[in-house]
Design brief:
By secondary structure, the chain is of the alpha/beta class. A 6-stranded mixed sheet has the order 6-7-8-3-9-10. It has a 4-stranded antiparallel sheet with strand order 2-1-4-5, covered by helices on one side. Strand 4 and strand 5 form a beta hairpin. The longest helix is centred in the first third of the chain and has 27 residues. It is globular. It starts with a helix and ends with a helix. The protein binds adenosine-5'-triphosphate. The site of adenosine-5'-triphosphate has 14 residues, from helix 2.
Amino acid sequence: LAQLYGPLNQLGYIYRSVNQSLVDTEKLLALLNEPTDINDKPDAPDLVVAEGEIEFQDVTFTYDGRTTALNGVSFKVPKGSSVALVGESGSGKSTILRLLYRFYDLKDGEGRIVIDGQDIRDVTQKSLRQAIGVVPQDPVLFNSSIAYNIGYGKFDASREEVEEAARSAQMHDRILTFPEGYDTKVGERGVRLSGGEKQRVAIARTLLKNPPILLLDEATSALDTSTEKDIQKALQNLVKGRSSLSIAHRLSTIANADLILVLKDGQIIEQGSHSELLALDGVFASMWADQISSTDGVSIAGDSLKKE
Ligand code: ATP
């Protein structure tokens, strides 16, 4: 029995890790009520990521067969570059992330999503999801130590690796202020972390997972200036060298994105770098003008768009 206990216990741990990471992902993608009935094709190969280049090719998608969530969306995320999605609520930002994570499959004739030349419908879901790191808006913490909460990004992470990830995620110094450092319990029954701190824990987890592709959902709520700075620094460390797609609610955070896509009613209505979009003097420029004229310097992208 004792011989069985070790492996069984480990299996339980793996099960919990898998289960917990799904909880996180589901939360980000607001999928708790959405069934996922995507099946791999028989003998589907694993995704092979060489460059991490993502391409949406004329993607059209409907959830219910009546309203169009995405309508002819095409764009490319070149190797290692950052693409930011902005637009009012319901414009299709989350749908783009959900489709890339393959919670739904596109039907024939409704476009393709391709990573390094492979249609994501043709590869295993497991390999796809292994290649993608997700930083949700409101990460879930477990009632366990802060080290465990960071370490489950990588099953066999050593304490040194956990600390290194926490340093890159700008959380190390904060953790040292906890009564038992990395062994301090966090979550509901331990030290309660702020939204910004939880997001940095999620960034540390993702640094450990080390995926070539990232999906980021920026927090909607305003953060104080120093927290904002820490998160920006942590995100810079995370996105470096990876292909990333992020939903931006606050325009201040995406000035450095390689490409900004402005969505409306499931279509890309403007695209370019921050300066190109300002020069265009269209929807993005008016959103930006709204933001800098707002007294607190923080504006929700969706709200600004509605003011048009
Ligand atoms: P937000 O900023 O509010 O998160 P969004 O830009 O991410 O909005 P999506 O969630 O992608 O927008 O929604 C795009 C469209 O698809 C909207 O019209 C929305 O009502 C619809 N939609 C989203 N999820 C579902 C669903 N599960 N079932 C049916 N329609 C949906």
